[in-house]
Design the sequence.
């Protein structure tokens, strides 16, 4: 019997081995030849979904073939916790997050080294951390996506506060309390509306039998499949789902005068205090903020590039057209404990 | 004929060997690090953390965890014993094939099974509801696989083999005379089953149920996927929240406490009832005729095989096929940055393999000490080494992050931390296997070697080791199998670039890339089949 | 020449799992076989293990060939003592063949010499033809003899045998023990033999030490142990003994079987007990007697009758195989007066 099993195993390996031999098609063709003689390795902790990070890393390694990039993807806070534990024995060189609260909190705990990227002057100062301890990469906004076969555009909620309306009972999908973007949204709402209003909104969602997924990919797929009518996501999840051919529509919520405006957020990167690969880390940050790097985020992932002059993906609506809410990141980072206390208080799934 | 096992007293070879004591003591210290860490952190967590948790999560978590544990333990016990009885004691059609097929789901990690079933059954979005929708023309509501019911169902489906294997072994070892005696006293088949056979099975059943109970307490992937919050998943949530680990430590402390209570209860039961068979004139009991029940029984057993084996494997195969037929997906499956799926498979195999070797090696001094110097001290050491059962992967990982990072910083950030976590977590399996293997050989065997001029070291290598090797291999195979499947500790401890198959499957599946995860999942299952087939062979399920 | 001396050894255990011994002493001539006899828990096995070096005595000395093996300051580990042991379960190594088992103790000798010696030992125990078999392929008696060959192969100073026949079936036991004694004597081995079976001890031992509660009750030749037990315990343990009460009087000892003409140095009126073996009493049918035949046990060459005396005491008496008496037959019971009987006072034998 065991012989047979081993045989099966061997056959599967034989099938897989040649497949591994075929070279991975390059995600982005780089026209420029390898620049410096950079060699070595770079360890990246990333809170971004791996699929949304890997293309940029592949492009970077195509440019610096002697650099080996090792990626550990996870949840923002989980990795931040690891970074804090590792402060006297740093393992990572750079940290990429999906929101600014985590980088700001880490910056306040001396987790980062200061670095002003080459393109610093082309990035709004809003997205550069104090003392250059972190720098923003891309911007994303919180939107409502809906299944157009189940909901018409007129029907679709125009404000996130409509999500607590009983008419959507059991029809809403969104990410749960472990998701960085969701955490950041709650932090922003606390600042904009105060503790009580945020709490009642969260409780309203729970009472409305909203379903909380671990991540937004599940949410977009569920809405795309008609499993749920409405989803609260980062904008690019709508475009990713749309690109798969699903019948989905997008609402940029809260645009009326008395409403809070779009809640925005930014992905960011920081160089870890005590890195032994600082030149490579700098090159990586510079690459992410170069036109080439920003284009990858903009084109492959529909994000809003932060580098001035980089074009949006043609399908993406420019942010200029919208009213954006104004959140003070440093303040939100200061209040991060209160945000988590609120999450626990309402027992957000 | 069953008689209570005689309390075999083994009298010390000579006054306590310092070397052996030191070795066993060091192992005990090593394994109690996580316990100690959790204790310190939980107690030092501060009253505000305790109060906060008491006011919010603690009670609901306790209720959630305990109800799930009870439901799944009861469910797996009924299903496991029922299946074992049908395949071992009745004339069920195809029983010789079912006998080992039913054990195979052990190679499928519960969270992978849950991924598949979730994709199939998810309300509205799942394949099954969509198919029904298409068939009937309007949405059909089916029971949701999410939450308590779904988590119980899924865990029962993939954990029952523990009970099934252990009670199957017990059924096989039952003497025909037991049944015959019962019939002579006027009991029919059913009365014999309930009054005689099942009570005689109790040790095997208890051991299986204990494994299941502790597995659920430590279970992370499945409950997280099915969105049913237990202590284990809540600890992860805490880690994904504030930058403060004391809440996670407090939750871990409570979880460890529950597990220790379970272990303690089991030890008490174990002490009370131990049965062994007289081996002279031993005969198999003849199979019981199911009569009209043959077909329903066959249907039941087949559907268990279908749900726990055929469905996951075929869905994974279909997904893999999809992945292989799409150039982009195939590339994503095969390459992840600078790493390939072969690297992941290799990582899984060597880390689990090394963990197995280390766990067995470390279990030896403990088992030897426990046998040569029975007493309070050796009992404490042996029990300490079993607490790994009670430590969920998250807890072990948390403690290692802190302890290794402070004490052995050069080890931190290497795959060896992952291996250490596997050893800590799965040490009890090795200790139990080693202790069981040692009880199989008579102490006089070693004394004979001593009297023939061998020192205690020579005796160990020339006599003891060759004799217990098969038992040690079985323990190693078990550690290997469970380490391959390990998820939470690996997730937290893996250095960048060191992903195992289990981690890959999880990362991809968590983001909803099922097709991409499927080939790795299949590879993981195949790798698990190797140690499993060895274990089944030892159980003499393959003849 | 003295091969083994055991001086006042004592050993106690906290766990209570093993029997303690206290103040045990005996010496053994070269070539002599001593049987340690006693009920389970009497300390005979502990004594054996103390000699082997598997236990360290709390007090006392173990001296082997004039070398101190164990005392307060010295402790020679078992592998350095030159002692061999045959275990109750034989303890043959299951991963080795019969020959490899025998060779196990010959590892310090040159290969060819060891091979020859092993073959010689297998020949001695008559199992040369089974040398390539594994223990599980041998019968109980064969395993027993392989264990003996393995123990004898390194020419041990002393051979210890721990209940070596107890794992054999009853019908084999007699045959095997005859072989073993012959082999031991042929090898001129000095041996300590532990058993709880008095018949085995009487057969195997040149001398017998009867153990009781961790002490030696009596150490003597089998004949002496049988005929002159120095305590009621020994008499009882050695078996086939009934006891009847008696009282010392001027003319001897007054019993319900009549006057016994023996004169212990005890004051008149002292209560004593008299040990009776089957051949120590005789009976004849006599109507009206208050003693009755209760049962006949046919033993082939003779009959054993169980009798009830007027006081209710039960005694056994031997009769030729042709003498049949029905249960219920009233009989007249009396002493056979060709030898003195053992008399006990407070459990100890009294001189006469």
Sequence:
């Amino acid at each position: 019997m065991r012989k047979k099993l081993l045989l099966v195993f061997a056959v599967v390996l034989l099938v897989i081995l040649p497949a591994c031999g075929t070279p991975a098609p390059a995600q982005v063709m780089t026209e420029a030849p390898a620049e410096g003689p950079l060699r070595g390795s770079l360890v990246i902790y990333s809170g971004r979904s791996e699929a949304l990070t890997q293309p940029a890393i592949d492009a970077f390694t195509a440019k610096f073939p002697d650099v080996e990039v090792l990626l550990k993807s996870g949840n923002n806070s989980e990795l931040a916790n690891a970074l804090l534990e590792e402060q006297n024995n740093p393992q990572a060189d750079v940290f990429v997050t999906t929101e600014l609260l985590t980088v700001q909190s880490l910056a306040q705990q001396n987790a980062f080294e200061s670095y002003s990227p080459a393109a610093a002057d082309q990035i709004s100062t809003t997205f550069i951390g104090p003392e250059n301890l972190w720098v923003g990469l891309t911007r994303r906004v919180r939107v409502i996506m809906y299944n157009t076969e189940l909901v018409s555009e007129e029907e679709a909620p125009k404000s996130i506060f409509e999500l607590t309306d009983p008419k959507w009972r059991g029809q809403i999908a969104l990410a749960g309390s472990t998701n960085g973007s969701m955490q950041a949204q709650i932090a922003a709402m606390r600042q904009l509306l105060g503790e009580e209003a945020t709490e009642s909104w969260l409780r309203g969602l729970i009472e409305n039998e909203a379903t909380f997924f671990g991540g937004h990919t599940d949410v977009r797929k569920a809405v795309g499949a008609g499993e749920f009518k409405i989803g609260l996501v980062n904008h690019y999840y709508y475009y990713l789902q749309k690109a798969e051919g699903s019948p989905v529509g997008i609402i940029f919520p809260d645009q009326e005068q008395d409403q809070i405006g779009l809640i925005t957020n930014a992905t960011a990167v920081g160089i870890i205090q005590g890195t032994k690969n600082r030149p490579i880390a700098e090159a990586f940050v510079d690459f992410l903020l170069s036109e080439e790097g920003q284009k990858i985020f903009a084109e492959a992932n529909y994000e809003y590039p932060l580098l001035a002059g980089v074009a949006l993906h043609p399908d993406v609506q420019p942010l200029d057209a919208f009213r954006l809410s104004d959140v003070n990141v440093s303040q939100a980072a200061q209040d991060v404990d209160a945000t988590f206390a609120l999450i626990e208080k309402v027992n957000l799934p | 004929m069953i008689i209570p096992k005689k309390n075999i007293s083994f009298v010390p070879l000579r006054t306590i060997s310092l070397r052996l004591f030191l070795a066993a003591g060091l192992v005990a210290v090593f394994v109690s690090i996580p316990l100690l860490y959790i204790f310190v952190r939980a107690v030092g967590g501060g009253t505000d953390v305790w109060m906060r948790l008491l006011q919010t999560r603690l009670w609901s978590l306790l209720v959630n965890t305990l109800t799930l544990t009870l439901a799944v333990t009861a469910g797996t016990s009924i299903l496991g014993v029922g299946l074992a009885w049908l395949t071992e004691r009745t004339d069920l059609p195809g029983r010789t094939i079912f006998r080992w097929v039913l054990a195979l789901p052990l190679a499928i990690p519960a969270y992978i099974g849950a991924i598949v079933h979730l994709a199939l059954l998810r309300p509205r979005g799942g394949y099954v509801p969509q198919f029904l929708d298409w068939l009937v023309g309007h949405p059909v509501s089916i029971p949701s696989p999410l939450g308590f019911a779904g988590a119980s169902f899924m865990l029962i489906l993939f954990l029952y083999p523990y009970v099934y294997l252990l009670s199957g072994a017990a059924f096989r070892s039952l003497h025909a005379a037991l049944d015959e005696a019962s019939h002579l006293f006027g009991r029919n088949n059913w009365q014999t089953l309930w009054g005689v056979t099942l009570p005689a099975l109790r040790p095997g059943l208890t051991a299986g149920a204990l494994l299941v109970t502790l597995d659920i307490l430590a279970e992370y992937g499945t409950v997280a996927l099915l969105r049913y919050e237990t202590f284990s998943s809540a600890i992860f949530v805490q880690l994904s929240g504030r930058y403060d680990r004391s809440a996670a430590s407090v939750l871990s402390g409570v979880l460890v406490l529950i597990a220790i209570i379970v272990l303690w209860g089991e030890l008490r039961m174990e002490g009370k009832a131990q049965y062994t068979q007289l081996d002279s004139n031993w005969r198999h009991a003849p199979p019981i005729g199911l009569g009209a029940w043959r077909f329903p029984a066959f249907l039941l057993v087949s559907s268990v095989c279908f749900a726990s084996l055929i469905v996951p494997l075929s869905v994974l195969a279909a997904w893999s096929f999809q992945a292989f037929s799409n150039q982009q997906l195939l590339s994503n499956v095969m390459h992840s940055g600078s790493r390939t799926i072969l690297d992941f498979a290799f990582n899984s195999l060597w880390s689990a393999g090394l963990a197995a070797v280390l766990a067995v090696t470390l279990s030896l001094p403990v088992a030897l000490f426990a046998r040569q110097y029975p007493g309070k001290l050796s009992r404490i050491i042996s029990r300490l080494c079993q607490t790994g059962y009670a430590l969920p992967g998250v807890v072990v990982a948390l403690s290692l992050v802190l302890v290794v990072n402070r004490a052995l910083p050069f080890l931190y950030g290497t795959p060896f931390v992952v291996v250490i976590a596997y050893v800590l977590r799965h040490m009890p399996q090795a200790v139990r296997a080693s202790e069981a293997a040692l009880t199989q050989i008579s102490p006089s065997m070693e004394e004979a070697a001593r009297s023939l001029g061998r020192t205690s070291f020579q005796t160990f290598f020339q006599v003891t080791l060759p004799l217990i090797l098969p038992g040690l291999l079985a323990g190693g195979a078990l550690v290997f199998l469970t380490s391959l499947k390990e998820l939470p500790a690996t997730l937290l401890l893996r250095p960048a670039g060191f992903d195992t198959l289990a981690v890959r499957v999880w990362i991809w599946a968590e983001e909803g890339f099922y097709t991409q995860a499927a080939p790795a999942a299949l590879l993981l299952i195949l790798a698990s089949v190797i140690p499993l087939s060895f274990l089944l062979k030892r159980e003499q399920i393959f003849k | 020449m003295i091969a083994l001396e055991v001086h006042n050894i004592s050993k106690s255990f906290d766990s209570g799992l093993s029997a303690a011994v206290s103040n045990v002493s005996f010496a053994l001539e070269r070539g002599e076989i001593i049987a340690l006899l006693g009920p389970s828990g009497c300390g005979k096995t502990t004594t054996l293990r103390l000699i082997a070096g598997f236990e360290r005595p709390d007090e006392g000395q173990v001296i082997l060939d004039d070398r101190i093996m164990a005392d307060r300051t010295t402790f020679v580990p078992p592998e350095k003592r030159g002692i061999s042991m045959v275990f109750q379960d034989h303890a043959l190594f299951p991963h080795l063949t019969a020959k490899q088992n025998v060779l196990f103790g010959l590892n310090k000798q040159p290969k060819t010499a060891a091979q020859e010696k092993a073959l010689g030992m297998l020949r001695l125990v008559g199992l040369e033809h089974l040398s390539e078999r594994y223990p599980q392929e041998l019968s109980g008696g064969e395993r027993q003899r392989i264990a003996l060959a393995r123990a004898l192969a390194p020419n041990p100073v002393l051979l210890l045998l721990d209940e070596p026949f107890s794992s054999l079936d009853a019908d084999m036991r007699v045959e095997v023990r005859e072989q073993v004694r012959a082999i031991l004597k042929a090898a001129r081995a000095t041996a300590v033999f532990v058993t709880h079976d008095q018949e085995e001890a009487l057969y195997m031992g040149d001398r017998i030490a009867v153990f009781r509660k961790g002490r030696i009750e009596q150490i003597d030749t089998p004949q002496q142990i049988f005929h002159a037990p120095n305590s009621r315990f020994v008499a009882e343990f050695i078996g086939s003994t009934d006891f009847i009460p008696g009282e010392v009087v001027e003319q001897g000892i007054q019993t319900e079987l009549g006057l016994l003409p023996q004169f212990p140095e005890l004051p008149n009126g002292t209560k004593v007990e008299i040990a009776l073996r089957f051949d120590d009493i005789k009976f004849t049918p006599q109507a009206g007697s208050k003693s009755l035949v209760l049962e006949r046990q046919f033993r082939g060459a003779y009959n054993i009758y169980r009798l009830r005396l007027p006081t209710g005491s039960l005694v056994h008496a031997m009769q030729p195989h042709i003498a049949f008496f029905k249960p219920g037959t009233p009989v007249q019971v009396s002493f056979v007066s060709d030898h003195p009987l053992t008399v006990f006072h407070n459990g100890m034998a009294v001189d006469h």
Q: What stands out?
A: The two ends of chain A are 46 Å apart (CA to CA). The first strand of chain A starts at residue 40 and ends at 46.
